[in-house]
# Entry
Amino acid sequence: MAEEQNEDIEALPISEKVDTVPGGDVKVDIPPEGGVAGWLVVLGCSLCLFTTFGFLNASILCVFSLCMTSLATKYYQIILAQGIGFGLGAGGIFATGVVCVGQWFVKNHRGLAVGIVVSGSSLGGVIFPFFVNKVVQSVGFDGAVRYTALFVGTLLVIACFLVKARFPGKKWDTESKWVDFALFKDKSFTLYTIGAYFVMWGLWSPFDYLSTMAVETSGFSPDLALYLISIINASSIVGRVVPGWIADHFGYFNIIILVSGMTGISVLALWIPFDYHPSHVGLIVFSLVFGFVSGGFVTLMMPCVARSGELKNLGQRFGTFQVVLSLSVLTSLPIQGAILTREGSFLGLQLFAAVSMILGTIFIVAARIEIAGPSLTKKI
# Structure
């Protein structure tokens, strides 16, 4: 019985292991599945990702950086304020929000809760382009940035009151590693990280180049082309919630393989053909499909990290994983831009994105096989 209990305990996330008493028994405090407090945390974290500007203390840095951007008169000042300051503040959003929500939702609703949280960034992607565009026309760029800072600051104040940790904080461990590349000795984690790297290498291509392509090759007006990005983000709201809810029932790895594969296929089947046969409706359909499947991948990315290695080093695995993915995001758009400049058409960067995402899916499939074998019936 004791062995069975210990096995059950080891199956739980580290955050649920609270105390050890004499005799080897472990007291486990499992966060509630739902409840008012838990869903308020979901709302607060979703507001944080809606603003895409930071979390708790980082929010101050982000709002300050926006205000400084409004005062910038030289390019290096924009780099310091918006690039470095804003980037540092925003860097605390994703992992912190997901980890905090993960304390409140453990077994039945984690995928749904995380999906709702990360859908906040998609909702922000729908609203902010319209908001900033209209305000710039009314008060100019400097005034628009200040109004944005006020809007963001207000939402982050609300979020700070809503978001709280389920467990008390731990004493700072000066010897604890933030990033540990020794974790790549774990084959399943290595395969999954490589797969996610390749998927992210191509994932942002439509977000950055679809509007330009629509204007240059499909006869879109600049305003209508901008709406394509809002359509992607609007579809991504649903895509970040529904696949997460489905994954709670059928397994995170099983669903992420499906949506990541569809991201690459959608580029091949629904984006590239309109290089040769321009169609307003076609690009709108692609925006809807790609927004949904890419949103599903973003939602399930971190829960799959938790499934791809040992629980005792979960925090280091999160940090190491995100460091690797940051390199993917950092290099993907410059590479695609260089391809576009050299080729003079969008086909090259589209193929780069599609092949990267399909190749990444193959590595994620390999990671799933390493974890659970080739059986398709296992919930992983």
In short: The chain has 13 helices and two strands.
